[in-house]
Design brief:
InterPro entries: 3-oxoacyl-ACP_synth-2, Beta-ketoacyl_synthase, Ketoacyl_synth_AS, Ketoacyl_synth_C, Ketoacyl_synth_N, PKS_Beta-ketoAc_synthase_dom, Thiolase-like. This protein is 32% helix and 18% strand. By secondary structure, it is an alpha/beta fold. The chain has two domains: 7-250, Thiolase/Chalcone synthase (Peroxisomal Thiolase, Chain A, domain 1, 3-Layer(aba) Sandwich), CATH 3.40.47.10; 261-413, Thiolase/Chalcone synthase (Peroxisomal Thiolase, Chain A, domain 1). Helix 3 (73-89) crosses helix 6, helix 7 (167-180) packs across helix 13 and helix 10 packs across helix 11.
């Protein structure tokens, strides 16, 4: 059976550096950091007192209060993001068969704040079990895809992928596969996360995963810098409308680019640490290249996972050098987490959008906060340090790797 072509026709973003796609891109292009002191709770006694929060977001500007109170923040983010992407794609009743429109979303953790609030209230109460009737539907990760589907009447495949920080990339690849197999015409995909909570920050602090650069939050996320000390927690997410190419053409949709390949792998090594030789990352990128049916030399830019952790950053670069050989020194590479922080299950969505917009604008977003490049990283690698760079881009790749050894890679090409 001949595979259908799959294109991107809509984008939505709600991020620590902008609450629309345009604002997000302007932040990326100008090297803006979204990090600042935490406002969502009193972080005085926490080892890390800062994060990359979504700013100036009032949910009732977008969702009626009676509906919003039935959703955790990660679902509220997802519904608003999906609305942006659907509007950008120009989807309307006359153009689509809603039986063939799906929603496949990603979230690594789901309703952490809801769970935290309910447990704290129970622990501080009389011992009589009194729980919010919306506790379970707010908390479970698949609530977000369900809410997007219900609001829009989309009756195609509907679920949420959970694979830690690879969740959104996994969701996008699943949507890609359904469409190219002819099982769907359109899919709203992406991911969202809202884990800047006491449990989220405290838990990652206990893992020694977060930066503790409390005196200078805006420079704390510093992928590939020798003084990096952990990642910066982010929140928000991104949405992508994927569509079968002929369907998009028939309705006169704007086409951003084509999604041409997706790759998966597992490190099969450790629950939190990456494979020391980057073998899982190597396999994931190799699988995506093979799926796309292209040559290694066709990749112009890689949006790396690049979390700013001591172990993860060099392993990914090692995998890139092993796979691409000398072409690794012709490509541009950058980690946009240096600006947005790490959105966990939503990371792949906003980083895919960053890669797509890099194609759109022919501009590589920078890796900010590289003050002293890690000497273990080959200086011939173009990390796009500190400033965006104009470059001819035709094909770009985006990586996400998650706790548990989950790896997922996407490849987009200019149409």
């Amino acid at each position: 059976m001949e595979s259908k072509r799959v294109v991107v026709t809509g984008l939505g973003a709600l991020t620590p550096i902008g609450n629309t796609v345009e604002e997000f891109w302007n932040g990326l292009a100008n090297g803006v950091s979204g990090a600042d002191l935490i406002t969502r709770f009193d972080a005085t006694n926490f080892k890390t007192k800062f994060a990359c929060e979504v700013k100036n977001f009032e949910v009732t500007d977008f969702i009626p209060r009676q509906d919003a109170r039935k959703m955790d923040l990660f679902t509220q983010f997802g519904v608003v993001i999906a609305d942006q992407a659907i509007a950008d794609a120009g989807l309307n009743e006359a153009d689509i068969n809603k039986d063939k429109v799906g929603v496949i979303w990603g979230s690594g953790i789901g309703g952490l704040k809801t769970f935290e609030d309910e447990m704290m209230a129970f622990a501080q109460g009389s011992g009589v079990p009194r729980f919010n009737p919306f506790f379970i539907p707010k908390m479970i990760a698949d609530s977000v895809s369900g809410q997007i589907s219900i609001k829009n009447g989309f009756r195609g495949p509907n679920y949420v992928t959970v694979s830690a920080c690879s969740s959104a990339n996994n969701a996008i690849i699943d949507a890609f596969n359904y469409i190219r197999l002819g099982r769907m015409k359109v899919c709203v995909s992406g991911g969202s996360e809202a884990t800047i909570t006491q449990a989220g920050v405290g838990g990652f602090n206990a893992l020694k995963a977060l930066s503790e650069r409390n005196d200078d939050p805006k420079t704390a996320s510093r992928p590939y810098d020798k003084d990096r000390d952990g990642f910066v927690l982010g929140e928000g997410g991104g949405g992508i409308v994927l569509e079968e190419y002929e369907h998009a053409k028939a309705r006169g949709a704007k086409i951003y680019c084509e999604l041409i390949g997706g790759g998966f792998s597992s490190d099969a090594y450790h629950i939190t640490a990456p494979h020391p030789e980057g073998y899982g990352a190597f396999l994931s990128m190799q699988d995506a290249i093979e799926d796309a049916g292209i040559e290694l030399a066709e990749i112009d830019y890689i949006n790396t996972h690049g979390t700013s952790t001591p172990l993860g950053d060099p392993q990914e670069i090692k995998a890139i050098e092993q796979l691409f050989g000398d072409h690794a020194y012709n490509m541009s590479i950058s980690s946009t987490k240096s600006m947005t922080g790490h959105l966990l299950g939503g990371a792949g969505a906003i980083e895919s959008i960053a890669a797509i917009l890099a194609l759109e604008h022919q501009l590589v977003p920078p890796t900010i906060n590289i003050f002293n490049q890690d000497e273990t990283i080959n200086p011939k690698i173009d990390l796009t340090p500190n400033k965006a760079k104009a470059k001819k881009l035709t094909t770009v790749l985006s990586n996400c790797f998650g706790f548990g050894g989950h790896n997922a890679t996407l490849i987009f090409r200019k149409v």
